[in-house]
């Protein structure tokens, strides 16, 4: 293919990418309406020293870490079970784990309102059994956000871990078993280390998704449990504070980039050793 | 299941807990949708289809369904029309910095969607006075470009370039060789990318959130607003209808390309 035709093929896509993504993103950072870049930086500095704003950053990171840990803890067993099963149900279970990825986040998160709400499943169950007099406040807590986000990102963890486990040669595990290693030992010293790069990818995707998700903290966290995303929306849409909105956007983006960068380094190191 | 290694009770318990968290809340949505009462209460007070009728008759929802379908269809088509040539250039062209170029087209996946939404709202809608449909279409297309480039790229990588060269050697023009040889080989990738793109656009909240106006609103954002204002089972009914439609899409996806393949392609 000649250079000129290659360029012609690239040009329309490139133009859309520039107008629909790259240029606005850069412009938002350097020149929000009526605000200078210096003011954005200044606002960012204020954010990282103000206890309220810092609390939101910390809550976002904390929730992200907890959700990531839970998703790996639940997702890896599911993935290894399905990848190594010879049962015909494995296909059905895999489809059941992937299906939620197609379903709207609003619908999935809405389910937790029914489960955790004051007249919800858990509250009714606890009061009905006479365990408590008044249903505990479950909605608008960090726990609610964590549950919602785990539901949202567990399918992603499962399919990413699934492809990692599927790539490990079952012969290695059979060899370990044949040499006398227990099931548990084979799992920890063969399967886990060999699928670790995939697990790191899964963890990164879940973390990046959790710290940037909007629907879940909005519906399940309310205004008392703000995360960076809900705070960003409030700056951009309610108070129309462009400097603060841009500063929040930068903090959120840097957080995602930082974690992706670290995980890429870890992944490369893992591949070498 | 004697062949499986993970019969360990701890592993099995974790797996069951995972499925409960993924699936059970969705079941409760469906259950509350059929209530005869007027609150989101469980167990539901009586059985009726009232709220389905209400949801279908509620014009903001129905208008939003049409808007979301329109946006998703256009953005998906546009992303494929723009993305396939990019895939061809990246895989078949002799250009320097191929990896960098592919990375550039995948970059919308890396930046948080809410941040992109803020940028488009601020720069295009407020700065350049673009109307919100155009802005949404630009944003959704840019968001779907990575899917189009990567998923069709995976198909193209499997296609043998010698076939195209043979067609060219037999006298076909580059355009004819593309439409008669390359494009048919890309079909599984096109179907996957199309399905994935359509669903992604239709369900999107973070990117669309700031780009709403009274004239053109998408369904997920309309539902989100409704939940925040009134706490009645109508959204449960609307959610159940969305769920039913999604099941249909899933069955079509499974029959045409296979579920696992569609999602396996995007996060390598």
TrEMBL record, chain A:
Compartments reported by the entry: Cell membrane
Transmembrane domains' residue ranges: 62-82, 89-107, 144-166, 186-211, 232-259
GO cellular component: plasma membrane
Entry protein name: Spermidine/putrescine ABC transporter permease
Any single biological process term in GO: transmembrane transport
Membrane topology listed for this record: Multi-pass membrane protein
PANTHER family found in the cross-reference section: ABC TRANSPORTER PERMEASE PROTEIN, INNER MEMBRANE ABC TRANSPORTER PERMEASE PROTEIN YDCU-RELATED-RELATED
Lineage per the UniProt record: Bacteria, Bacillati, Actinomycetota, Actinomycetes, Micrococcales
Entry superkingdom: Bacteria
Similarity section: Belongs to the binding-protein-dependent transport system permease family. CysTW subfamily.
Automatic annotation (TrEMBL), chain B:
BP GO terms, sorted: transmembrane transport
Cellular localisation: Cell inner membrane; Cell membrane
Domain (ABC transmembrane type-1): residue spans on this chain: 65-253
GO MF annotations in UniProt: ATP binding
CDD domains: TM_PBP2
Principal localisation: membrane
One Gene Ontology term, aspect cellular component: plasma membrane
Designated name of the protein: Spermidine/putrescine ABC transporter ATP-binding protein
Keyword entries, A-Z: ATP-binding, Cell inner membrane, Cell membrane, Membrane, Nucleotide-binding, Transmembrane, Transmembrane helix, Transport
Name of one Pfam family that matches: BPD_transp_1
TM ranges: 12-34, 71-91, 103-124, 144-163, 234-253
Highest taxon, organism lineage: Bacteria
Family, similarity comment: Belongs to the binding-protein-dependent transport system permease family.
Membrane topology: Multi-pass membrane protein
InterPro entries reported in the protein's UniProt record: MetI-like, MetI-like_sf
Organism, as annotated: Promicromonospora citrea
């Amino acid at each position: 293919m000649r250079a000129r035709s290659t360029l012609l093929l690239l040009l329309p896509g490139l133009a859309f990418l520039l107008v629909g993504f790259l240029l606005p993103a850069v412009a938002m950072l350097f020149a929000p309406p009526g605000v200078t870049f210096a003011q954005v930086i200044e606002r960012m500095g204020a954010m990282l020293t103000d206890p309220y704003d810092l609390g939101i950053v910390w809550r976002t990171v904390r929730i992200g870490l907890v959700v990531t840990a839970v998703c790996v803890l639940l997702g890896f067993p599911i993935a290894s079970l399905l990848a190594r099963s010879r049962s015909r149900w494995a296909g059905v279970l895999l489809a059941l784990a992937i299906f939620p990825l197609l379903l709207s986040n609003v619908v999935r998160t809405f389910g937790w309102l029914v489960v955790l709400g004051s007249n919800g499943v858990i509250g009714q169950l606890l009061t009905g059994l006479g365990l408590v007099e008044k249903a505990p406040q479950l909605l608008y807590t960090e726990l609610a956000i964590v549950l919602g986000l785990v539901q949202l990102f567990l399918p992603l963890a499962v399919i990413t871990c699934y492809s990692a486990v599927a790539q490990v040669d079952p012969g290695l595990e059979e060899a370990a078993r044949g040499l006398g290693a227990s099931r548990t030992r084979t799992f920890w010293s063969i399967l886990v280390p060999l699928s670790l790069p995939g697990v790191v990818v899964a963890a990164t995707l879940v973390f990046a998704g959790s710290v940037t998700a909007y629907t879940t903290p909005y519906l399940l966290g309310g205004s008392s449990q703000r995360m960076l995303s809900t705070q960003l929306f409030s700056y951009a849409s309610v108070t129309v504070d462009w400097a603060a909105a841009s500063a929040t956007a930068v903090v959120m983006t840097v957080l995602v980039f930082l974690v992706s960068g670290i995980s890429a380094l870890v992944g490369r190191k893992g591949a070498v050793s | 299941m004697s062949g499986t290694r993970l019969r360990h009770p701890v592993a099995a318990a974790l797996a069951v807990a995972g499925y409960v968290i993924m699936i059970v809340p969705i079941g409760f949505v469906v259950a509350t949708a059929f209530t005869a009462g007027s609150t989101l209460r469980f167990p539901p007070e009586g059985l009726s289809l009232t709220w389905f009728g209400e949801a279908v008759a509620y014009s903001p929802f129905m208008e939003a369904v049409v808007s979301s379908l329109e946006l998703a269809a256009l953005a998906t088509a546009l992303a494929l029309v723009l993305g396939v040539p990019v895939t061809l250039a990246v895989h078949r062209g002799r250009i320097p910095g191929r990896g960098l170029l592919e990375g550039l087209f995948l970059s919308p996946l890396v930046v948080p969607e809410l941040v992109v939404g803020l940028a488009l709202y601020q720069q295009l809608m407020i700065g350049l006075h673009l109307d919100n449909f155009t802005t949404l279409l630009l944003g959704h297309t840019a968001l779907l470009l990575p899917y189009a480039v990567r998923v069709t790229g995976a198909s193209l990588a499997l296609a043998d370039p010698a076939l195209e060269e043979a067609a060219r050697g037999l006298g076909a023009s580059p355009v004819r060789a593309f439409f008669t040889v390359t494009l048919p080989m890309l079909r599984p990738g096109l179907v996957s990318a199309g399905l994935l793109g359509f669903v992604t656009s239709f369900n999107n909240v973070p990117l669309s959130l700031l780009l709403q106006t009274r004239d053109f609103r998408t369904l997920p954002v309309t539902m989100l607003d409704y939940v925040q204002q009134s706490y009645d089972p109508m959204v449960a009914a609307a959610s159940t209808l969305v769920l039913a439609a999604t099941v249909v899409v899933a069955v079509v996806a499974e029959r045409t390309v296979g579920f696992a393949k569609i999602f396996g392609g995007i996060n390598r």
